[in-house]
Amino acid sequence: MLARADTVYYLVDGKVAARGSHRELLGGEPGYRALVARDADAEEALR
Known about the structure:
Layout: E1 8-12, E2 15-20, H1 22-28, H2 30-46
Antiparallel strand pairs: 1-2
Helix pairs in contact: 1-2
């Protein structure tokens, strides 16, 4: 779903820490990349 969004807002403590496409954030925002990795791990654990 996020991969298809034009703009994603990554929030830290309720404030916008970064914004961009999913691909841009994966490449340039370590916190966002870690969040996506944790989500993928959680989905895998549910299977």
